[in-house]
Design goal:
single chain, alpha+beta, three-stranded mixed beta sheet, 5 helices, 3 strands, globular
Length: about 110
């Protein structure tokens, strides 16, 4: 896998809480809640009215999104969070997307409202 790594989580506040995001192949990414909420779909699952199982278990399974695509989407969560309203550095680096995954990535981003 790429630069994402699973980490061990200690006691944290709700804003610092980590969630698990599971791909179609069963790979689990551990992502901080704030970054994951870049996705409108994930935000709705974690904060919406009602009692979503995903919110109670802090785990979301996306059975139709492959590990490779989900990893790229999660990289974008962190990228967007870092560079949104980032004024000290006016030059924002390009977020590289390999052409061979562009269509599948677009479909996943559309579903995740990212």
């Amino acid at each position: 896998m790429g630069p994402l790594r699973n980490i061990v989580v200690g006691a944290m506040s709700k804003d610092q809480e980590m969630i698990r995001i599971k791909s179609a192949e069963g790979h689990i990414f551990i992502v901080d809640r704030k970054s994951a909420m870049v996705s409108g779909t994930i935000k709705s699952m974690l904060t919406g009215p009602g009692s979503f199982t995903e919110n109670e278990q802090s785990e979301i399974h996306f059975p139709l999104i492959s590990t490779r695509i989900l990893e790229k989407v999660i990289q974008y969560f962190y990228f967007k969070l870092r560079y949104t309203n980032h004024t000290p550095n006016p030059k924002i680096p390009e977020f590289n997307i390999e052409p061979e995954i562009a269509l599948e990535l677009l479909m996943a981003a559309n579903y995740l409202d990212t």
